[in-house]
C-alpha cells in the first residue's frame, strides 16, 4: 500500500508539473490560433513571447509590481503583432519571412537591451517577491490534503498555482467561445477560408485580420510574462527555448482547434515534466540517461508527431496568402 501511495503521489506531482510547464504553451497556442484562423501564418510566436518575457521582467523589476510588468508584456507583444500585420496585411509581404525577422530581431534586441540596462550579461536582476506572481492556495487545500485521492488532487492539481496558470486554462474555453459562438469568430473562420467572400459581404478583411492579431499579441504577452515573472524570477536570454515553435506545432497537431491544441500542449508539457524528473535517474538496461538527450525529448516528439499527423491536418485554405482587393 505504501508503494501504491508513493506511485499515486508521483503521478499527481507529475500532472501538477505538466500543467505548470504547459501553461505558456497553451497561451501561445491559443494566440497562434487567432492569427492562423484569420489566414496569417505566425512563425513569430516565439519572438513575441520572448519580447513579452523581457518586458515583463524589466518593468516588474523597476516598478516592483508584477501586474504592471504583465501589462508591459502584453503591450510589447501586441506592438510586434501589429508590426507583423503591417508587413503582411497592409503591404502583403511574405508572412513566414516577417515572422522569422521578428524572432531574430527580438532574440538580439533583448540581449542588447539587457546588457545596456542591467549589465548582467543580457538578463535581468532577480525579481523580489512583490514583482512576481505567487501561488494561490485555495480554501481548505491543506485540510483536505489528507483525504485519499480527491484531497491530493485538490491540493496539488487545483490549488497552488499562480494566477497566470488559471488564465492559461481559462483561455481555452474563452478561445472556443470566441471562435465558435460569436459573430467575430464566424467572420474570423470565414476570412481564413475565403477572404473574397468576406470582402463581398462588405466586411474589411484587413481590419478583421488586425483584430485577430490583437488577440495574438495579448496572449503571447501573457505567455512571456508567465515565463519571467511566474515560472521564473527573472528574464534569462533566450528563455523561451523554442516554446513558441512547440506551441505552433501543438496548434497544427490540434488541427487549428482550441481543445485538440490544448491536449497537444498538455502532451508536450507532460513529456517535459517527465524529462525533468528523469534527470539523474538510473533507467534499467540503459543506465543514467544523458541530460542533453532527456532535454531533447519534447523537440523529438514534435518532429515525430508532425511527421505522423501533419498530413491529416487541414489548414485554413487562405492561410499564408495575402489578400488583394479586387477593384
Give short descriptive properties of this protein.
ABC transporter involved in vitamin B12 uptake, BtuC, globular, two-stranded antiparallel sheet, 327 residues, two-stranded antiparallel ribbon, mainly alpha, 4 strands
Task: Chart the SSEs and their pairings.
Blueprint: H1 2-37, H2 45-63, H3 66-90, H4 95-118, E1 135-136, H5 141-144, H6 150-158, E2 161-162, H7 163-181, H8 183-193, H9 195-200, H10 205-231, H11 243-253, H12 258-278, E3 282-283, E4 287-288, H13 291-295, H14 297-309
What does this entry look like structurally?
By secondary structure, the chain is mostly helical. The chain has a single domain (2-312), classed as ABC transporter involved in vitamin B12 uptake, BtuC. It has 14 helices and four strands. The strands form two sheets. Strands 1-2 form a two-stranded antiparallel ribbon. Strand 3 (282-283) and strand 4 (287-288) form a beta hairpin. Helix 2 packs parallel to helix 4 (95-118). The longest helix has 36 residues, at 2-37. The N and C termini lie far apart (75 Å).
Approximately how much helix is present in the residues?
over 70%
- As laid out across the biggest beta sheet, the strand order is 1-2
Report the average pLDDT across residues.
Answer: 86
Topology as H/E string? HHHHEHHEHHHHHHEEHH
Computed structural class? mainly alpha
Q: How many structural units, i.e. domains?
A: 1
Annotation, overall tally of beta strands = 4
CATH domain fold name? ABC transporter involved in vitamin B12 uptake, BtuC
Q: Please identify the top-level CATH class.
A: Mainly Alpha
Beta-strand proportion: under 5%
How would the global form be characterised?
Answer: globular
Number of helices: 14
CATH architectural label: Orthogonal Bundle
Rg, Å, rounded: 21 Å
Distance between the termini: 75 Å
Q: Describe the biggest sheet?
A: 2 strands, antiparallel
In the predicted model, the low-confidence regions spanning at least 5 consecutive residues are: none
